[in-house]
Design goal:
The structure holds 2 protein chains of 2 kinds. Chain A has 8 helices and no strands. Chain A is an all-alpha fold. In chain A, helix 3 packs across helix 4. Classes of the chains: A mainly alpha, B alpha+beta.
């Protein structure tokens, strides 16, 4: 035992280290969130929190579940791949509760957003100068938005041939 | 029971490892969505973009993006024709100095272009969901990270708002939310894609210029697209592992 004769101060020092480590562990237990480090150096639970946010665009599948007539009309036309909410806006509220009535978009503004002629747009994209093209008539006089071709079944008389 | 020093030395690290797992808690199971089955990204088909701004509006609606800030925005490039002079002077290369505009992020569309010279195209921009993201590497507290499904997210409860990540992003895709005072960015509509929906911008894009892709899905058309098209990512020289793919991207785009 002669080696450890005066080792008391060493044990006290070691004890201090152990105590500090325990305090650190206890503090860490309260400070670090439970899921920190679950997948990496971040709070794993935050992924679920971000995923839990509510949606505002219902998605075209939700629209087509009820409005299959419109979906059929669209299928054959130029707007077949334009999703409902691209024009009608975010309507998850309406999809969840059909008594919430959406406001119909104003075609004068809406159609022009995409189809106003500009040298910057891809050349193959159908585009017109709205003032010259319609002389003030509203777009749906000739074009049905869901199937905008002039020979579409619901187009104004004279358009079909 | 007597424990000698050798046994103690073995037991202590084992206890530490066990304690770590207790601290981590049990992983939460999501019933329908498995993160490891996905590796999300996006494809931008430049020739299809008409610059209508539908994506920007949809994003701001879906994600309550404050006015004047953007999680996605659209830029219009105008690369003028090569200036030819008879005197043989050295002329500036229009590819190096394109005219780029993005009024209100393209939210209200773009002014009508009348100058027929040169070439125009639109470049929608968003978080590139980098696999080796510089923004996540600089975060001092672990508030931003690449999720196991490849989406770069911000833990807004943990973020200090120091803004390091805003400076680190080479694409300018992050901002400090003026009300929350924490970092904010495109989440690739994480709350939508985990429910089986597409992102708000893809849902609202009328021409299909934006497509959500899942690189771990063997049936995703992206695999065929990548084989048959000239596809680039932005700033590949930064080695960020960006995975928003741009089809037919012009060399003038920075």
């Amino acid at each position: 035992m002669s080696v450890f004769k005066d080792a008391g101060h060493l044990f006290r020092f070691a004890g201090l280290f152990v105590l500090a480590f325990l305090v650190f562990l206890v503090a860490r237990h309260f400070v670090v969130p439970k899921s920190f480090g679950q997948y990496g150096h971040y709070r794993g639970a935050s992924i679920g929190e971000i995923a839990a946010r509510p949606v505002k665009f219902a998605g075209h599948e939700a629209c087509e579940a009820c409005h299959s007539d419109v979906a059929d009309k669209k299928k054959t036309g130029k707007h077949a791949h334009v999703n409902c909410e691209a024009c009608h806006g975010a309507l998850a509220g309406h999809a969840d509760d059909p008594t919430v009535k959406p406001v119909l978009p104003d075609t004068a503004v809406l159609c022009a957003q995409c189809h106003t002629a500009s040298a910057a747009k891809p050349k193959g994209f159908p585009q017109v100068a709205p003032a010259d093209h319609s002389q003030g008539l509203s777009c749906e006089t000739c074009h049905q938005p869901h199937n905008p071709g002039m020979n579409a079944p619901t187009a104004a008389a004279g358009g079909a041939k | 029971m007597k424990i000698n020093r050798r046994q103690m030395l073995i037991l202590l690290p084992a206890a530490a490892v066990a304690w770590e797992s207790v601290l981590a808690g049990t992983p939460e199971e999501s019933p329908n969505y498995k993160m490891t089955d996905h590796w999300w990204s996006m494809l931008i088909d430049i020739p299809k973009c008409i610059g209508c701004g539908n994506c920007v509006r949809a994003c701001q609606t879906e994600n309550d993006v404050p006015e004047g800030y953007f999680r996605t925005w659209v830029e219009r490039y105008h690369v003028s024709d090569w200036p030819m002079t008879k005197s043989g002077d050295i002329t500036p290369n229009p590819l190096i100095a394109p005219e780029v505009i993005s009024p209100k992020g393209g939210k209200e569309g773009f002014p009508t272009a009348t100058d027929e010279s040169g070439k125009y195209f639109f470049v929608p921009k968003l978080c590139n969901q980098c696999a080796d993201s510089p923004c996540t590497q600089v975060c001092p507290v672990g508030a931003t990270f690449v999720a196991p499904d490849g989406v770069v997210l911000v833990d807004q409860k943990y973020c200090l708002g120091c803004g390091y990540c805003v400076q680190a992003c080479p694409y300018g895709c992050r901002y400090i939310h003026p009300a929350k005072e924490v970092a904010d960015k495109c989440t690739l509509c994480y709350h939508r894609i985990t429910k089986g929906l597409t992102t708000a911008c893809c849902e609202a894009c009328p021409t299909g210029a934006r497509q959500l892709v899942d690189l771990k899905d063997p049936k995703d058309p992206i695999h065929e697209f990548l084989k048959t098209h000239s596809v680039q990512v932005l700033k590949p020289q930064m080695a960020t592992g960006a995975k928003v793919f741009y089809n037919d991207l012009d060399g003038s785009v920075r």
